[in-house]
């Protein structure tokens, strides 16, 4: 009976980790394709990002149900309990990353007169950093890599710096070119979504660190 219980618990944990990996993969692709759609003005690709967000939402519900069942029936302790709690929190964060990607995709068709927009290049570079953070934190989760998780946390400053630079750039651009205010405002909104994606990748990294060590990464001075 004990062996059966342990095997069933291991299967549940493996299933939870698989669901998180699937969610993460979909969220990562959503961010990549939302930015690709933005850069190439591909509204069809943007629409597909919006539609596929429902799959991420459904997976979050599945993770929640399974995690609650594991806690109720298996009464995990120590490392195992941290694993389940981390998965619960990570699934919620990945769902939000999917939402931010969806928000970016929704604005692809609202940007006019793209050629004059120099900030679009800076936005693309910012997107690449955010995408890398999402990719690396998912790698850290899969490998239980605490060092890589810390590196993701440290990289968030770079996304923040991009956002601050873009904010100043876009505000100046709008002042100099009043006719572009509407489109520039959309780019500013997209920059904010990318900044939040970076923050959420950092949140996942902190949970990976917690699940592996029992502590959160030390605060930087």
The assigned CATH architecture is: Up-down Bundle
Q: What is the count of helical runs? A: 6
Q: Based on the structure, what is the oligomeric state of the protein chains?
A: single chain
What is the CA-atom radius of gyration, in angstroms? 19 Å
Beta content comes to under 5%
User: Overall mean pLDDT score?
Assistant: 89
Q: Give the C-level CATH assignment.
A: Mainly Alpha
Q: How many domains, as an integer? A: 1
How many strand units? 0
Biggest sheet features: none
Helix content range: over 70%
State the shape: elongated
CATH superfamily: Phosphate transport system protein phou homolog 2, domain 2
The secondary structure category is mainly alpha
Our measurement of the CA-to-CA distance between the termini, rounded to an integer number of angstroms, reads 51 Å
Low-confidence stretches: none
Do you know the CATH topology? Methane Monooxygenase Hydroxylase, Chain G, domain 1
The SSE string, one letter per element, is HHHHHH
Write out key terms for the chains shown:
mainly alpha, Methane Monooxygenase Hydroxylase, Chain G, domain 1, 221 residues, 0% strand
Structure, described:
The chain is mostly helical and 221 residues long. 86% of the residues lie in helices and 0% in strands. The chain has six helices and no strands. The protein has helices at 2-40, 43-74, 78-106, 119-143, 146-176, 181-213. Helix 1 (2-40) packs parallel to helix 3 (78-106), helix 4 packs antiparallel against helix 5 and helix 5 (146-176) packs antiparallel against helix 6 (181-213). The mean pLDDT is 89.
